[in-house]
Amino acid sequence: MSILSVKDAGFSRKAGPLFEHAYLEIEAHDRIGLIGRNGAGKSSLLGLLIRELVPDSGEIAWARDFSYSYLSQNIEVPDGVTLRDFLYLGNATEISAAVEKKERGADPADNRQSNVPTISLENRYRALCRELGLSDMDASLQYFSGGERKKAALARTLAPYSSLLVLDEPTNHLDVQTIEWFESKLAAKDQAFILVTHDRWFLDSVVNSIVEIDRHTLHSYPGSYSKFLERKAVDIASLDHMENKRLANLKIELEWLNRGARARATKSERRKKEIEKMRKSLLEEARSKVIFASNVARLGKKVCVMRGLGLSYGGRRLFGDFSWELGPGTKVGIVGPNGSGKTSLLKIIAGQLEPTEGSVEIGQTVRMSMFAQTNEAVDGELSVLDFIREHAEHFALPGTSDLDAESLLERFDFPRTFQKQKLRSLSGGEMRRLMLVRVLVESPNFLLLDEPTNDLDIETIESLETYCAEFSGSVLMVSHDRLLVDRLADELLIFDGHGQIERFHGSYFDWKLADAERAEAASRAGAAAAPRSNATSSNIGKRTMPAQASDTAPGSPIQASKSNKLSYKEKQELAGLLKEIDALESEKRNLDTFFQDPSGAISGGAPFPAPIDFVEAGRHYEEIDRLIAEKLARWEELASRE
């Protein structure tokens, strides 16, 4: 059943058309990945689908009962907004009005109108927030990190049921664990979605069709992102053959015109201009992706040596006693939850942050460049060309003589007409690409990359990936892009979020397999010991384990008939689960307080009893996390049958 239909739609900006004669049909169970270069019009198309923008031509038809949930790329939150306000109210304007009412002493719920959540929706908000580690509904979002704000936005988007989920760069600012959680949620949802993302692993995992905006036209491809790449390769090969043939024919005709009689001169000149225009058009269509390149200075045996390295912040130890040596030509990926110290480690190596313990030694032959997660502060009035000229007038790239700044920028897909633009007018993706050019022209032999794929389109990410794969120096990268890490890294540093850094020799995929095997072994051991064990804390109460797997296939008629209605005992269990989870969350908050100030007091004012050190506290914290996850899974299972 069609829920939305785009027919012959066109949309333009000041610079010209983004897309023309666009056709798109979205069915009730479509899972669409929308891709295209930065500036191609992806976010604009999403804006048309949710009625925020109006097409210049054509029409868009929505089903009568159409509804949507929208996750914006940029999350705007006025000061004073709590997590509860953010979830229950819609857009930033609506939230601002609620905050003003609250300040005047009025009830902000008056603003909610039809958005007032039902008990069931409120429970879904709470459950999703707990799963995402956001337990305090009255916490102010102005103190949230970018990742925490994105988690709050995910909960707000996923909780209500709607015809269509519209997701614009949903994985930005998320760590790998949260992205994998989000993947599982999308897989379990029985509703259509269309999403824009630069995360190729995520894209390949969740979509069943691809829509590409290429040269102002929408192209639809059924199947996963992998299938799209296979089809695209065939299309490009066919296009190359056709273009070569057309260019050859144009060349023959041009030669014939040049040999023509003077009597045909006027006609010949006109035809030659037409041919030249066609040739330029073909060259534009066949334009290759930007190719990153740089000279690499010779690298000695010593690159980076860390001895007993540690960092504490705000009374919390991010990591400690870490000793490791990075070898020449080694490419290492860093993964772990947000806030665990990944970026801080890069900053320590770059000399931008002092460790609280230990030391870092950099080799004498090292030329280090860091591509930071956020763009450095720049003079917005500088032009693109002047910005690069500040670093040097001439550059040498592999296989070329010295290039001037204009030619260099052209190599990195900044045309000469674009080079005069002010930095303040650049999009996020354009600014990131320019910063990457600045890093590469320094001819580094040791690259520090902190979330390098942020704001880049897929084509640019692929070019960066190719460059790093062929880079003869050393690379240390923090990235939530699992495909990038998997393809480039031959070693991993895994931050566990509790002060430990694990080293793993192998790819990201190898590590995930090993991690799954460890989890399965631990689960088997736990199941064997379960009849003989008791709860570790009297506060926790009786554990509620997820339903055991059976031979019956999930979703089969047999299983559905067995679990269609809740028994009286299950209803009692459901009623008590949220209270049990609240108690666990309270204990978790006490542990958080202990981590920040071990000698202090818990929220109730009593001294923290036990565990008495970080190691014991860390283990207890992990146990509570596990119990919360189990109880949430059980709550979701029962609530879905209520």
TrEMBL record:
Source species, domain of life: Bacteria
Domain ABC transporter: 4-241, 291-522
Bias kind Low complexity: ranges: 524-538
InterPro entries noted in UniProt: AAA+_ATPase (IPR003593), ABC_tran_C (IPR032524), ABC_tran_Xtn (IPR032781), ABC_transporter-like_ATP-bd (IPR003439), ABC_transporter-like_CS (IPR017871), ABCF_ATPase (IPR051309), P-loop_NTPase (IPR027417), Val-tRNA_synth_C_sf (IPR037118)
Keyword Calcium belongs to the record: no
Region (Disordered) location: 524-565
Ranges annotated as biased composition (Polar residues): 547-565
Tagged with keyword Transferase: no
Residues in the signal sequence: none
GO MF annotation list: ATP binding; ATP hydrolysis activity; DNA binding
Alphabetic keyword roster: ATP-binding, Nucleotide-binding
Protein name, per record: ABC transporter related protein
Source organism of this protein record: uncultured spirochete
